């Protein structure tokens, strides 16, 4: 196995591109540099969405408002919201005087789809602007991993707060989202510690949900984590980044953009990309090290051009420079030394041993298909299970985990439950085969935090 020299690559979490300097959203015109924002009748196309432009910072019509300029600074203006959105009544707009930003019924229907927005009549909420917002504007059914289903009355044992819904993904443990009916503030429960402030009110809650949905699939406008976190600092300075649902979300969802389709494999992986996290810790192979059993050409090419990450804590790759053995060959060697070595599976001659998996197992690749498997001999009965669709999704999983740790250190984020939920949602969307069965290898490793794979 030859060692690949370190290199540099683009930072997938910080790519950006320039945007038009003039756009209209919700009555605020984003003007060219050097001009002042004006209030005008919007000319938005149906379904248009700009993740951090003017609409996201409109504040309190009829009084001071925050408008984002083309130079990415935040400047106050006293222009009132006189025209507003074409379908917005003035009383609807001014309803938000006690909320942080102006959001209308039309906004939420465009962001989430009219069929995905639900309105609620909740007399138990004492905070009148919040009660009106929920009744007239509404909440999405599900967004940013939050499923909204408000209770009619305060929940027992939660300091009189009302359950708005819960957040989580796949098989993670759901945590409640709570509304303080007296103040309108929104809190997120955590597995460890007291509920943390999630949003200053329902207007920023819905705005942040829309932002997360725009970046979560990795297909919307390019928005850097810095840009979105700066937005939180300007519009919700009360949030503590170390215990903020949205700081964690905006710092981590950007990684989804790296999952570009590969040629013959699920994801495009390059040495420069891996070098961002695993400098000098991944290796390519020589042709003489690859056995004839690897007939899947994209897999052979990946092993030669990129190689494998040697993360010794949970995946210990073979690095002795010898040809990779098949499981049939390795099992025969072991049986010569150990009487209790189990019989290998029937197709062991097609399974090539790449290394060792923690929890007593061999890391394998099916030489015919490229599927990554594990031969687990640690229990009472040996079994063969699937780890990843192919070597590219194995590398992507390890890359994402490493990058999430670095983003956490960079931005000082640390909500355990949010970290887990995003990791599971992101990785399962890229490699559903690896997460198809409950108790899969990566699920146990990440949700249990084994070998440092948790937050």
Automatic annotation (TrEMBL):
Report which superkingdom the organism of origin falls in. Bacteria
Where is there biased composition of kind Gly residues?
A: 1-10
Q: Where is the composition biased (Low complexity)?
A: 33-47
Region named Disordered = 1-52
Which Pfam family, just one, is annotated for this protein?
A: SUKH-4
- Would you tell me the protein name for this molecule? SUKH-4 immunity protein
Organism listed in the record: Embleya scabrispora
């Amino acid at each position: 196995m030859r060692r690949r020299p370190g290199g540099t690559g683009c930072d997938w979490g910080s790519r950006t591109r320039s945007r038009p300097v003039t756009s209209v959203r919700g009555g605020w015109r984003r003007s060219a540099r050097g001009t002042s924002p004006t209030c005008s009748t919007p000319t938005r196309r149906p379904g248009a969405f700009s993740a951090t432009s003017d609409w996201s910072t409109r504040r309190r019509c009829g009084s001071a408002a925050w408008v984002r300029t083309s130079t990415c600074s935040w400047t106050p203006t006293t222009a009132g919201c006189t025209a507003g959105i074409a379908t917005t009544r003035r009383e609807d707009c001014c309803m938000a005087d006690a909320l942080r930003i102006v959001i209308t019924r039309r906004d939420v229907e465009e962001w989430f789809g009219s069929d995905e927005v639900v309105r609620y009549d909740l007399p138990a909420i004492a905070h009148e602007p919040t009660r009106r917002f929920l009744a007239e504007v509404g909440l999405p059914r599900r967004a940013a991993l939050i499923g909204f289903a408000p209770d009619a009355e305060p929940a027992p044992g939660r300091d009189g707060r009302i359950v708005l819904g819960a957040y989580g993904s796949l098989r993670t443990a759901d945590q409640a989202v709570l509304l303080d009916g007296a103040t309108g503030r929104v809190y997120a429960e955590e597995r460890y510690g007291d509920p943390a402030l999630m949003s200053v009110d329902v207007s920023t809650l819905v705005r942040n949900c829309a932002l997360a949905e725009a970046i979560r699939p990795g297909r919307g406008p390019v928005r850097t984590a810095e840009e979105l976190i700066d937005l939180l600092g300007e519009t919700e300075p009360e949030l503590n980044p170390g215990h903020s649902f949205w700081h964690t979300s905006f710092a981590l969802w950007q990684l989804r953009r790296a999952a570009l389709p590969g040629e013959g494999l699920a994801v495009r992986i390059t040495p420069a990309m891996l070098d961002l996290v695993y400098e000098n810790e991944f290796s390519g192979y020589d042709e003489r090290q690859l056995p004839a059993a690897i007939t899947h050409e994209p897999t052979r090419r990946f092993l030669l051009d990129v190689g494998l990450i040697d993360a010794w804590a949970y995946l210990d790759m073979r690095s002795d420079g010898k040809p990779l053995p098949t499981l049939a060959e390795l099992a025969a060697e072991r049986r010569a030394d150990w009487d209790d070595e189990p019989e290998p599976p029937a197709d062991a001659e097609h399974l090539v041993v790449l290394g060792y998996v923690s929890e007593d197992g061999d890391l394998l690749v099916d030489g015919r298909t490229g599927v990554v498997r594990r031969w687990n001999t640690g229990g009472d009965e040996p079994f063969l299970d699937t780890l990843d669709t192919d070597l590219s999704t194995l590398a992507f999983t390890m890359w994402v985990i490493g990058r999430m740790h670095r983003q956490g250190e960079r931005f000082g984020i640390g909500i355990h439950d949010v970290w887990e939920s995003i990791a599971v949602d992101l990785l399962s969307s890229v490699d559903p085969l690896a997460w198809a069965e409950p108790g899969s290898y990566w699920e146990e490793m990440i949700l249990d935090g084994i070998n440092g794979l948790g937050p």
